Amino acid sequence: MKKLWMACALLLPASLYAQTATLVPPANISYAGLEKNLFFYANTRCKVTQTGSNQLDLNKLFDGRYDPSYTSAPSESDPTVITIEGFQAQHTQRLAYIGWTTRYWAPVHFKIEGYDMSGPGWVTLAEVTNHAAGEFIKDIASIPGLYGLFRFTFYTGSGPQGQLGISELFYLNGEAAQAYDGLMVRYDAANNVTMGSKLRPSNLNVNGQVNTNRVKVTQDSWADFVFDPAYTLPSLPTVEKFIQDNQHLPNIPSAKEVTDKGLDLGDISARLLQKIEELTLYMIEQHKKIETLTKENQAMGEKIQQLQNERSTR
């Protein structure tokens, strides 16, 4: 039965609900917009819990794609309840919206609550019955508070048997959005992203530590030219003289250059590989010389032993 009504949902006309939330202007002409959704990926960066027998796909509710999630019919006695917590609370004194959007089977009876950290506790921001639109947007600036938790309770849906569909949950706060942009992340139309700094020298600028499992750098050239027979390996006396004059290896940036300009990871990796390959050639050359000297010493030892044996027989 569940597969049947899910299939029916996909066959419903796309115009059933507009799902554009046009009441909220873009953030570039307002203090808040849907692109400033503070719930964006809340299921991975905040704490999201869900209760009720009929549950929605949390991954779809916060990914910004507006791809609907459907569930069997909730009820007044067994509602679907989603609680979001763990993000930085900001006052809703100037401009703030909260709501949801969907494509099919919108909630008919629902309630949205916020937990005011400044004292009152849970505050009902909206409770609606007999709702008939495919979206709900509530300006909660008239209900000022320092909200650190939000709770969405869906009692009934508009599906054929009361099923529920939700595409996205959103919370837009002009004051929080401005602080988020100014202190943490900035981005512009040129695809530049800046974290922790107002400087934008490159497409991604991070003022702080970056933790990652792996970094892949694409290079147009690599240092294997060292092994080309036409490559001239610098002599060790030449390298020694350069080090004495400059206090760093040839073709490697100095400490001052790194301090002033930083490092290109791909470029410095290629340069360091070049030095490793040159060292390898030096070692091979030294190994050949050592082998030659070893053989010469062995031959000389045998000659000395032969002369000693001849003298002892006289």
Task: Set down the secondary structure blueprint.
Blueprint (H helix, E strand, L loop, with lengths): L1 H10 L30 H4 L1 E5 L6 H4 L7 E3 L8 E12 L4 E6 L5 E10 L4 E8 L6 E5 L6 E12 L6 E3 L1 E6 H10 L1 E3 L5 E3 L8 E3 L29 H11 L8 H7 L3 H48 L2
Parallel strand pairs: 12-13
Antiparallel strand pairs: 1-3, 2-9, 3-8, 4-7, 4-10, 5-6, 5-8, 11-12
What does it look like?
- With 314 residues, the protein is of the alpha+beta class.
- It folds into two domains: 2-173, Jelly Rolls; 220-305, no CATH class.
- Helices cover 30% and strands 25% of the residues.
- The chain has seven helices and 13 strands.
- The chain has helices spanning 2-11, 42-45, 58-61, 174-183, 236-246, 255-261, 265-312, and strands spanning 47-51, 69-71, 80-91, 96-101, 107-116, 121-128, 135-139, 146-157, 164-166, 168-173, 185-187, 193-195, 204-206.
- The strands form four sheets. A five-stranded antiparallel beta sheet has the order 1-3-8-5-6. The chain has a three-stranded antiparallel beta sheet with strand order 7-4-10. The protein has a three-stranded mixed beta sheet with strand order 11-12-13.
- The protein is elongated.
- Residues 1-15 and 18-22 have low confidence and may be disordered.
- It comes from Chitinophaga flava.
- Residues 1-18 form the signal peptide.
